[in-house]
Amino acid sequence: MSSIPDDRAEAVFDDFKPAYDARQAVTEAQRCLYCYDAPCIQACPTEIDIPEFIRKIATDNVKGSAKTIFDSNILGMSCARVCPVEVLCVGDCVYNHLDSPPIQIGKLQRYATDKAYEEGWQYYAAGPDTGKKVALVGAGPASLAAAHRLRRYGHAVTIFDKRSVVGGLNTTGVAPYKMKADRSVAEAEWVLGIGGIEVKLGVEVPGDISWQQLESDYDAVFLGFGLGPDKLMALPGADLDGIVGAVDFIEGFKLGRAAVQGKHVAVIGGGNTAIDAVREAMGLGAASVTMVYRGTEAGMSGYQHEWKAAKAEDVQGAWQRQPVGFEGSGTVTGVRCVRLDDAKQPIEGTEHVIAADLVLLAIGQAKLGALVEGLEGIETKWGAVVTDAQGATGRPGFYAGGDCRNGGKEVVNAAAEGRDAAQAIHAYLGGA
Amino acid sequence: MPDLTSNTAGIISPNPFWLASAPPANSGDQIMRAFDHGWGGAVWKTLGTPIQNVSSRFGAIQYGGVRGVGFNNIELITDRPLDVNFREIAEVKKRYPKHAVIVSLMVETKEEWKEIIARSIDAGADGLELNFGCPHGMCERGMGSAVGQEPAVNERITSWAKEFSTIPVLVKLTPNVGDIRPHGLAAQAGGADGVSLINTIKSIIGVDIDTLVPQPVVGNQSSNGGYCGAAVRPIALHMCAALARDPGFQIPISGIGGVTNWRDAVEFLLLGSSSVQVCTEVMLRGYRIVEDMIEGLDTWMADKGFDNLDQVVGKSVPAYSEWGNLDMNFETIAVIDKESCIGCNRCMVACHDGAHQCIHPNPDGSIVPTIDLDECVGCNLCQIVCPVPDCISMVEVDNGFAAASWNDHISKGATLRPKKGAH
After folding, report:
1. B201-244 pLDDT, tens digit each
2. The pTM is what?
3. Which residues pair with B336 in a beta bridge?
4. Which of A59, A60, A69, A100 to mutate to test the interface with B (most CBs of B within 10 A)?
5. Structural domain containing residue B148
6. CB within 8 Å of chain B, chain A residues 19-38
7. Which residues contact B399 (CB under 8 A, 6 or more apart)?
8. CATH class of A133-228+367-428
9. Residue B423 domain-assigned?
10. What is the value of ipTM here, to two decimals?
């Protein structure tokens, strides 16, 4: 199994939402109304029976509580930490209608699933061998969820990933105040604990192995290869040192060291990766951090609750700015911007420089649809693999889930899509 | 994996969790849905001459923000035609042959008992439960608790039922008696195969202090109802244990009264119940609660090394004794953990006003109270009120005195340690 270094820069971060102890968990669990056909369940892409797992915490049946979670979402441990619960289950808790604090579902889920890991509870066994083989491309959340479900049905499963670590973006991309890389690796290992899942790291598909080869060696193929590298900006000065993609930057300090201390950092973008990056740069010791965004503060696509936290950590916002070039010689010293009006049109005579000796580009990641180009029957749209609701592509035996299918959503979406695609693959392979 | 199969007087169910005879067990549709959720058995809502109910029917105690800690009802037995009930019982048994269906019965004359028992058996019931417990409405008509409170009547009707029945007969006892034992023994003498207890406790749940009418309100009056729910569990546990440890009482018990989750159920099993029946918690939260009950019991049994329910049922009964047999030389004192104390002084006020005045402000100004160990009688009150888990512990003291009970002292002159806190 892959290993990650111990002296990772991400270690400086504390949990933004600290873990509950038993007393806190039970107190919060007892507050849950145990709603029927609950809105929180409907808000969860994996449809975890949330009231049930919370009741089981209240009755001190934590083992059963974690099982309720894992039955729907085998990645429940990481989702408890990384899910944007404020816009999902917690956001839909009925207590919001009573103007009362909603139940802290994520923290309760963390309590139950952490306990399961700590106690070494295993709930699932591989099904009887079906003689069928499935290849999964990418070792991120979608593939892990699919692989686990496929093993429960008894299919032989092999995961390929070009990286040297498992877990995909859950390992390399999650903000460390939510979850650190080792926890994601631990989750992958726990999932693989069902046995019989072969993981081949450092193997690129297509490249080291062609699609045709996979197709002839396996009875079905699941595409879970996620997204590609950061998009860059073709502006004057773009090749200066100190201008890096945000996802690249995040992976760098999550798996290794970071050189942010004392720097003035500009993060370009207004999405959730941008918000992660500003908070991370701040936590890693930047002297100042500015978020540079084309729209308004209220109009950013990143979650407002995350941005509020960033502001509380002294991150500055530069709104309605369009970068037009980078300053500096050798190393970047600033971002040249113009102001935009409400229609996002440049306002003449407003050029100015925002000083920065580290610029992080968080304007999106490339889609990898091109990887499957030429595979007859598989369509892509805006670079994402097109499937039906169950995850089947137009090519028999090929399924897809996670970021490469949905264009880049949450871990919990990948977990749901991987699980459901596994169900569809099982049916395709003749299972009930 | 422990075996949860339950055997109560020959009534076998896949687990010990039964719906009690009550609104959740009113119809075939409900009981089949309950079985789908995992309930092992159901006691069909009492059949007899169908009655007519009032509205409203239920009342509840809300305490400290928790709704339904205690509950009461003035609903009577079935109001549905008997033909319909029996047809549905047959249907349930046909579809769920492995689940236990026990039919609760309440009629008056011997002829009526004969007929309704025959019809229950014909419908496929696995057992009968004679409702000698209902403390409202029916008792005014000479049935329910009016029967259960008279051991001779109880025994006579039980013997009728046994005469007519080829399937196990349970007698459901009322708690509205001074001592449960003669009533359990009367059922046994009548030939009952087992007893169920407790039925509800005669009660007035409250009074609307604006309208001045007791609850539940029916127009401008109310009536006493049957009290149940979590609040009655200690009473039920005692009655269950009182019968379980009576040497003359030899028949199985189906425990009822305030079971809300698997832990409550375990307590009933430990005090002698072969199965447990649940109503109120299902009324408040639905059949779905049984999943946690099964899982929790299963996990607990596995953790404790129990393979089957026979190893659990009655396991705590030997530790339930007369006060006179308790070891008076067993001594504990309270100890406060200085690290976790939050300085609320709840222990101090409880001890000063409600116990033995041995917890005092700390003379060094710390927020942690001090305990005068020479005065602490080990009563547990401070530990009960402390909001921090494991902050106050009751620690056993080795006082050098050999174990001695009051009975030992009186009969054999055994030495008791000096009294504490008795000034």
Report:
1. 999 999 999 999 999 999 999 999 999 999 999 999 999 999 99
2. 0.94
3. B392
4. A59
5. 6-319
6. 22-23, 34, 36
7. B329, B331, B417
8. alpha beta
9. no
10. 0.93
